[in-house]
């Protein structure tokens, strides 16, 4: 009989001499004309579908294929195989839709080029270093982190490394490619930052309740941590928010609705003290505090919201302060500190704010209950009770997924707040809603531009930037119309700030990127092209070897010998990452029902699962050689990953996912568990599956795969090494449908590499038990492959579309009698299940189809298989463990080098320089006066005019400082605030083309009893009886200007005593 096509394909790939006729484990045995001949004829019938041809295989160049000795121990034979690529079978249907590999390039094709100030650090590297917030000055970018603050100088943005490196110290993990920065001495966690350009100070609020100051203009020395300046105990609880008012006072918000004011007069006096008097300075500030909750509490009743004050915003247009909790606002007069209004997200006024209910612990009555229906006098049998338990568990999972449970989180909460350049207040909500408010707290309009939660807002000129939980950034105009948008990060954008001609974005992983303030613009395409042409300069390549092990353990436990045979040191000596997927770790209706119930409240894992993790870890020497990075268990399914310690710095960002495919697609006896890792900055997903059983359930298996592939959604694991996530909910079929094209692709489709393993349960069809046994005994695997359901379905493009698998050259791994060694151990019981390759490993990398590509930034992950075998000597289960060794070539970007190339292009490209220069354009404006004279409570009005026919301008009025009694040493208040006796309105706003705005300047009367605190007059009222002089600065910028123009107005006030 002629060799079938599989053998021809293998022979064509191999350049070794003709095969000898002796028996080899991984090769075809010579055919005999004995009793097996009729069965071979039966394989030639018309009922054979999916017969292979040469096009089914992806050809890697192979010098030779090692011939191995005879024997049933595949694991031992595999050690003799060379570390060269094996021929592969490629499924049809890839390259389209969700089965198309993600587009990769040296520069992202759909977003503007950016400056990587701090490239995405691995999450595991951020212990104590995770950045929580950022703030920008004219010359610096400040970041608040878990152990203090750090600062980047814009002048050093394109310099490689950090000061620790230049000082000869080891670079902090996670900052290897960050721009040069300086770090403060260790402090409590920084929660909020505030910039004060007037006195060159950055203020920070901390978890320990303190407020600290940091000088902008201090000398930062290489390798030495800089120290805080003035600090004081502002609250007993964490300082959640800060702002500086129209009059230069610092307002701080804390838990329980507490708001405190720290008047500028006390701050000014304390800042003037020496280092030795620092303790006295803190005391002075703490004594000057004004507690707003105490101030507005009358007869024990307080109208202030009692929720945590997460946002404080100074409305410098109208001299007001906004405070926001998650669903309520309070509006304050910045001068009198009077509570003007309390209202909710709907704009409804709340005269009395009740204390919000605390998070209640789940009581017994709130637990998910399973109802087993049946008559008491006729108890059901065991099978019926098991079915009822499973149905009850499935219903519980569905109800929680649909929102019927008690764990549903309110989706309409305030997540961001800011004031636009035209004076409109914007708030963003967790349901994607954006709300406009006028200065009096009236709701003007609301709209949604993206279906996910708003995380951050930022304004500059006519542009509003919105950061979302998806990592997207959108640009809106002042009316809320969508201008542009792009995917800025792969995690939520939690902070946006503008500085130095750029928009800086911070993601939850701690990465910081800078975007040109005009993007998207014409310079983007030029930059993208120029940087792409220099890709070779910043491309780095690494090799990684991954071992995938899969085993259906049939509720058993492996011996030490079995684990060593499967994953011992000889098997993983050259492996960097080991991923193990187990099926049927634990079964039974009671266990499955309990597992489903535990998942609904965020609990998972089992003692049996932990046993497997511990014993596999011992086999891998996880204390000395490997480190367990994480794991995830869904009922009977368990997946875990170990990484060699020498490779660990380049592997992290563990995310987990589960998809149940059992009863009602809610029970975890069938389904998938997944892990996602970032390896050398490339995303690799590992999915362990157990698909539907039985020979005839092909369509159900196909549907299970499709359900897993399309619905598996990864989320952050709360686990450290070896501890699974406790907050990953079961993914069911009741998930929200994506609402926009950018959300339509599943998580698995966006990975650079996806590896499926598990008991896929595809069987051999059109063949009898005896025929299969005979072919196995002859090692006639080429004929058996033609009867493989999975191969036939893949060829038809019905499942695992576009995925690859090494050609099967080991015996079927199912079904065996437990404890019976050798190939004679196949099921010989009453059912005589036909042997099958149920246990498989398949993958998809960045290649498309059978094309051969070199590893590059356009095709960054290329894999090949050097080993694919089964451990036939292991007898603890009715399945044999399978393992597959993949060799990966990974291309990634050296962000520090690319940042330097970015700088060179900015300096040398004339078109880009010209475009940047255009951003400095500011329309001409005029101010009607340069001198204002006031007496007593006079009011003076002047005009700011925009004569441009097409450009709008934005103005802002600040106070450079007060010179009492002609004192030449004018000094500004905090944030160029105004003295309390002066009211300017509006102090900021928008002027349309050929329009003008009237600005009113009014002297306020302050020497009243109401302005006394604690029996002593505040210092400002004494100013009322003096002649005063100050300088007002009118700052004007264009709609997207990076520069400003200023007009100075001198204001003099003469105090004339009453007659």
UniProtKB/TrEMBL annotation:
Co-factor(s): Mg(2+)
GO molecular function, one term: metal ion binding
Chain ranges of the MSP domain: 918-1059
Tagged with keyword Hydrolase: yes
SMART domains, sorted: IPPc (SM00128), WD40 (SM00320)
GO biological process terms, semicolon-separated: phosphatidylinositol dephosphorylation; pollen germination
Region called Disordered, residue ranges: 1-48, 725-745
Record keywords, A-Z: Hydrolase, Isopeptide bond, Magnesium, Metal-binding, Repeat, Ubl conjugation, WD repeat
Keyword Repeat: yes
Protein name: MSP domain-containing protein
Species: Salvia splendens (Scarlet sage)
């Amino acid at each position: 009989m002629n060799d079938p096509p599989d053998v021809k394909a293998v022979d064509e790939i191999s350049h070794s001499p003709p095969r000898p006729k002796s028996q080899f484990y991984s090769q075809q045995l010579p055919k005999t004309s004995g009793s097996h001949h009729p069965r071979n004829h039966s394989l030639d019938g018309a009922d054979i579908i999916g017969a292979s041809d040469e096009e089914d295989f992806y050809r890697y160049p192979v010098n030779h294929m090692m011939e191995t000795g005879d024997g049933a121990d595949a694991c031992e034979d595999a050690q003799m195989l060379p570390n060269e690529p094996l021929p592969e079978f490629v499924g049809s249907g890839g390259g389209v839709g969700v089965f198309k590999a993600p587009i990769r390039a040296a520069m992202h094709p759909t977003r503007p080029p950016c400056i990587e100030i701090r490239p995405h650090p691995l999450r595991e590297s951020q212990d104590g270093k995770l950045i929580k917030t950022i703030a920008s000055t004219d010359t610096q970018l400040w970041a608040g982190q878990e152990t203090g603050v750090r600062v980047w100088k814009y002048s050093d943005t394109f310099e490689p490394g950090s000061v620790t490196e230049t000082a000869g110290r080891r670079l902090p993990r996670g900052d290897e490619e960050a721009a040069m920065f300086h770090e403060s001495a260790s402090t409590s966690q920084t929660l909020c930052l505030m910039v004060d350009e007037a006195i060159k100070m950055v203020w920070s609020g901390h978890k320990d309740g303190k407020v600290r100051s940091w000088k902008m203009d201090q000398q930062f020395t290489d390798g030495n941590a800089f120290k805080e300046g003035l600090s004081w105990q502002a609250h007993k609880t964490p300082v959640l928010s800060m702002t500086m008012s129209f009059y230069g006072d610092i307002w701080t918000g804390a838990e329980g609705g507490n708001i405190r004011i720290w008047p500028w007069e006390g701050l000014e006096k304390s800042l003037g003290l020496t280092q030795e008097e620092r303790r006295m300075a803190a005391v002075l500030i703490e004594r000057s505090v004004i507690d707003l909750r105490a101030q507005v509490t009358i007869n024990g009743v307080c109208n202030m919201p009692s929720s945590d004050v997460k946002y404080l915003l100074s409305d410098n247009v109208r001299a007001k302060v906004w405070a926001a909790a998650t669903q309520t606002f309070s509006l304050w007069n910045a001068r009198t500190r009077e509570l003007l209004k309390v209202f909710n997200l709907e704009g409804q006024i709340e005269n009395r704010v009740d204390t919000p209910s605390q998070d209640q612990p789940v009581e017994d009555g709130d637990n998910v209950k399973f109802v087993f229906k049946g008559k008491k006098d006729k108890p059901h049998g065991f099978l019926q009770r098991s079915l009822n338990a499973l149905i009850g568990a499935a219903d519980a999972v569905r109800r929680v997924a649909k929102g019927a449970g008690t764990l549903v989180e309110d989706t309409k909460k305030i997540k961001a707040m800011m004031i636009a350049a035209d004076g409109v207040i914007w708030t963003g909500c967790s349901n994607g809603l954006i709300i406009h408010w006028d200065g009096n707290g009236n709701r003007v309009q609301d709209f949604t531009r993206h279906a996910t939660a708003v995380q951050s807002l930022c304004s500059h000129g006519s542009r509003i930037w919105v950061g979302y939980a998806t990592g997207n950034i959108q640009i809106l105009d002042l009316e809320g119309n969508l201008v542009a948008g792009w995917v800025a990060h792969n995690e939520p954008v939690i902070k946006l700030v503008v500085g130095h001609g750029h928009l800086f974005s911070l993601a939850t992983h701690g990465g910081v990127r800078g975007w040109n303030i005009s993007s998207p613009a014409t310079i983007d395409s030029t930059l993208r092209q120029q940087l792409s042409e220099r890709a070779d300069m910043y491309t780095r390549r690494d090799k990684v070897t991954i071992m995938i092990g899969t085993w259906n353990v049939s509720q058993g436990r492996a011996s030490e010998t079995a684990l060593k045979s499967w994953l011992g040191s000889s098997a993983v000596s050259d492996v960097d990452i080991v991923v193990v997927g187990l099926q049927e770790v634990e079964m039974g209706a009671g266990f499955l029902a309990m597992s489903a119930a535990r998942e609904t409240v965020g609990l998972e894992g089992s003692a049996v699962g932990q046993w497997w993790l511990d014993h596999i870890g011992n086999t891998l020497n996880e204390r000395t050689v490997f480190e367990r990075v994480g794991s995830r268990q869904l009922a009977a399914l368990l997946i875990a990953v170990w990484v060699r310690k020498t490779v660990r710095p380049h592997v992290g960002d563990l995310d987990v996912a589960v998809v149940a495919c059992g009863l009602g697609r809610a029970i975890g006896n069938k389904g998938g568990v997944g892990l996602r890792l970032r390896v050398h900055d490339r995303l690799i997903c590992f999915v362990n599956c157990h698909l539907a059983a039985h020979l005839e359930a092909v369509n159900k298996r196909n549907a299970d795969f499709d359900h897993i592939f399309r619905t598996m959604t990864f989320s952050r694991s709360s686990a450290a090494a070896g501890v699974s996530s406790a907050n990953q909910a079961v993914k069911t079929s009741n998930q929200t449908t994506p609402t926009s094209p950018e959300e339509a692709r599943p998580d698995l489709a966006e990975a650079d590499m996806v590896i499926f393993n598990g008991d896929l349960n595809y069987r051999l069809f059109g063949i009898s038990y005896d025929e299969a046994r005979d072919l196995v005994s002859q090692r006639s695997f080429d004929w058996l492959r033609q009867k493989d359901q999975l191969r036939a379905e893949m060829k038809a493009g019905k499942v695992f579309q576009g995925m690859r698998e090494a050609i099967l050259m080991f015996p079927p791994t199912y079904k065996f009698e437990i404890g019976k060694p050798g190939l004679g151990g196949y099921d010989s019981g009453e059912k005589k299940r036909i042997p099958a390759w149920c246990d498989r490993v398949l993958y998809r990398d960045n290649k498309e189809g059978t094309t051969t590509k070199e590893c590059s930034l356009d095709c960054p992950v290329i894999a090949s298989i050097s080993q694919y075998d089964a451990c036939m000597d292991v007898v603890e289960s009715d399945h044999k463990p399978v393992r597959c060794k993949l060799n990966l070539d990974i291309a990634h970007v050296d962000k520090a080098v690319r940042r330097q190339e970015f700088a060179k292009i900015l300096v040398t490209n004339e078109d880009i320089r010209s475009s940047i220069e255009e951003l400095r354009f500011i329309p001409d404006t005029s101010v009607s006066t340069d001198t204002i004279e006031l007496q007593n409570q006079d009011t003076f009005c002047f005009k700011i005019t925009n004569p441009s026919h097409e450009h709008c301008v934005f103005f802002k009025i600040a106070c450079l400082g007060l010179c009492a009694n002609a004192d030449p040493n004018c000094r500004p208040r905090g944030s160029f605030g105004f003295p309390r006796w002066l009211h300017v309105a509006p102090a900021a706003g928008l002027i349309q083309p050929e329009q003008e705005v009237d600005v009113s300047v009014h002297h306020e009367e302050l020497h009243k009893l109401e302005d006394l605190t604690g029996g002593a007059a505040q210092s400002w009222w004494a100013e009322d009886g003096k002649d005063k002089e100050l300088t007002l600065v009118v700052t004007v910028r264009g709609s997207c200007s990076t520069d400003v123009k200023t007009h100075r107005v001198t204001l003099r006030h003469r105090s004339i005593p009453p007659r």
